[in-house]
Amino acid sequence: MFKVNDNYLKLPGSYLFSTVARKQREYQAAHPDKKVIRLSIGDVTQPLAPAILDAMHAAVDEMGHAETFRGYAPDLGYEFLRNAIAENDYKARGCDISADEIFVSDGAKCDSSNIQEIFSLDNKIAVCDPVYPVYVDSNVMAGRTGVYDSTTETWSDVIYMPCTAENGFAPELPKQTPDIIYLCFPNNPTGATITKSRLQEWVDYANKVGAVIIYDAAYEAYISEPDVPHTIYECEGARTCAIELRSFSKNAGFTGVRLGFTVIPKELKSGDVSLHALWARRHGTKYNGAPYIIQRAGEAVYSEAGKEQLKKQVAYYMNNAHYISAELKKAGYSVSGGVNAPYIWLKAPNGMTSWEFFDYVLANANVVGTPGSGFGPSGETYFRLTAFGSYESTVEAVDRIKNMKI
Amino acid sequence: MFKVNDNYLKLPGSYLFSTVARKQREYQAAHPDKKVIRLSIGDVTQPLAPAILDAMHAAVDEMGHAETFRGYAPDLGYEFLRNAIAENDYKARGCDISADEIFVSDGAKCDSSNIQEIFSLDNKIAVCDPVYPVYVDSNVMAGRTGVYDSTTETWSDVIYMPCTAENGFAPELPKQTPDIIYLCFPNNPTGATITKSRLQEWVDYANKVGAVIIYDAAYEAYISEPDVPHTIYECEGARTCAIELRSFSKNAGFTGVRLGFTVIPKELKSGDVSLHALWARRHGTKYNGAPYIIQRAGEAVYSEAGKEQLKKQVAYYMNNAHYISAELKKAGYSVSGGVNAPYIWLKAPNGMTSWEFFDYVLANANVVGTPGSGFGPSGETYFRLTAFGSYESTVEAVDRIKNMKI
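Predict the joint structure of the above. Result:
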């Protein structure tokens, strides 16, 4: 008689963003006349850049002729894309990452949930609190997190690193030694960043204790300040301790296009076993590559025209971020994030919990945000807004929130 | 100190098709003047159908305007595609499968390797021998297969169901009771099919012993004979025991486009736990949907124009299959498959092993096939050729093989 993976049954409730979407649907169904504005999930709204559209049209045309038709992609991704990534994201920043250390995928969500597979089940993970839920949930599904305590909303075998107003939403080195450390900067959900010297401390720590850092840099395109590292490979020693996850979703608006990549340096080893080789084996066995058309779209991100156009797109969203941040501060809210990141991290007023404030904002401003507690216990009483709406809807949402009676 | 998932280290050698590709590269490098023809991996060569190209161009255009831009897709896939699948692949065949039992994905390779995740690690799998390597390898990586015996090339905790000339390459019900049964018809690699009454026996058996059947129907578009089921849901009782995997790779030439789907009926349960709910949770947590553009391409597969064009494409490949089969039979080879499937299963002559014949054909005919032993011990002495080449290269490859001195 077949049995299910009962780790799945330990997961409390449904995936955060599914719950948020359900609440929105239910509210909208009950109030069909209300125009609900969604600043919750980090989903972009602006059209793809012309250079990307051109590249995709050209690739579609190629698929229409036997001479230029492309079937299965190479396991790691097409060289034209891996070369463009290595050149622009790494070599141009002085980081020694070669094209064959880059694994092209269909996005950072898949990679960040799949990467745990190449590690032992008795490895202990450390995560920021609050945190992007996928890191923890994928480890729960694998059976790596122990027992769930519904009172504290924590797992017995996970090391939580609180990111609070007190520490500027940047974690301190954990007291208990982890095997796998998830870091995400610029941070989702808090919008916080880390300086290069602080990140260097993490790299040194990981090398010292033999931990691996899974560094999620999905939001690096939003960095504008000089001392904020764009990649963990700016730090010395990162090649022996760090895997980096990257996405095209936010820098190029690819949430519905699906493209990302993972970097695993060849020196990153456990004994003589290379993590690069294990991930290559996983890619070869359990994945079949991102679509050719989409990989050509990715290449266009690095073209001169693409870079120029995307700089403007990022600026468009960051203008929203600055607007939300400035206006809500004026209205008396306690606000962080929104400087090098498209997320604004808001303290719920009057001692409301995150979900109470979520419901209150949905009912009174018809705006959907994301409850901070959904990202972890230290997110309680916080609320995340994203800068990915249109300018017009962002301004309207902020005005409505400002006009709510609190 | 982090440790790796040592199940990965148990995997013998590299993924079959990677090894085949490496051998081809090495031969080509050593013999740059030779024109090597590849009839190995099941990769298509014909351009996408015009209806599909039109749909993709239109979808790319939509992504260029804020009003029609699409971000993250719904967890299960877009309704327009799931409705088209339910209508055309199931309702039109009298099968009761609804759109919300369909999970759109980026292909059957990913689904067939990921599906084991929702089952308990102590479940025992049964596979055909020979078999598509991904079913077994993904279970090895999860730690479900016991110890590898390099002499027999089998795993201690896997039930192998030999498919040989004696049983017409169709497995018999296993003596030991499995929890999870992988079946693939039309079969990869043998090209064999199963009748509806034989498949009904499997469904009855699975329901009786409480096993789940993972039914890979990636090649159903190649069925031409009347008594061959296109989907397992043609059998009574399949809704309580069967998951079906489907692909657009072979029926629509999407190997480089990446689209597939998995069907999990809502009645399929272990106790009161629904596999549909578990897979939905996996999709929501570890996947982010197939690209919008690609889902529109999938929809076009079911348009009137698309169906007409793809019927011709399938006929083109089946013409190759018939040619390979007929000519190699004439030349004295023992050949099966190639009737309702794009694979020809060839017995190596003169007692050669599969890899000996592979090397011999590569060296003497400059044709790349796939060694049958790579699919499992009962594949030893067999050799797989695919019908996915162009007609011209297929004819040339067959002529070269016929002209080899044996």
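The first strand of chain A starts at residue 37 and ends at 38.
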